[in-house]
Amino acid sequence: MAYTRDRRWQIKARRDMQKRIAEIQARTLENLDYAFDKLIQEQPDLYFTMEEGLEEVRQTVTLVGEELDSANGLAELERLDRRIEFIEERFEDLESELFARPRRRSKRRPSLFDFFKAASGGGDGSAGSGDPLGDVRTAAEAYEILGLDSGCSPTAVTRAFRQKAKELHPDSRDGDRSGEPKLRKLIAAYQYLRSTYNTGDDNASGNS
Predict the structure, then answer these.
(1) pTM for the whole thing?
(2) Greater confidence, 80 or 135?
């Protein structure tokens, strides 16, 4: 069932974020010990700067972890994922200063949320015009893109969208991004039907 698959994805995403949070917490404590041993006598000003920054990171990521425990839904998990990413960037800044090394830039993995933004007219504008529904103009066209008969239930639409989106996503294709145009079209179709269901528009039945 679609609900079961969605639930499994949320559990996986939550575990991944919990792992990242735990890693930041552990490394923060290690770095605090290192800063104390190496800096407290010869560079006390730098030590106190590092201590303040690392403590801020530790406290912030702990708060995110508490929010994560009660978070539900894709949007909420995505918001917390972005917060963790921001904290990781801040932590990297502090580590590079602490160990006097160049800052390592992490390559951000593409997420389905990025493609949703692109299909909504955000990002790089590759979805076409500024119309949030992209090039999808009718429910019949949206159903066809999803491989469904007109008038299918919202549950069937969501199930078909998730299955096809997973197949086209770079994470399922060893990083191959050639399926992105089709994925954006798929998202536009899904968003079109979702908007018609939410507004009660008769076009959801497949009328042009």
Answers:
(1) 0.52
(2) 80
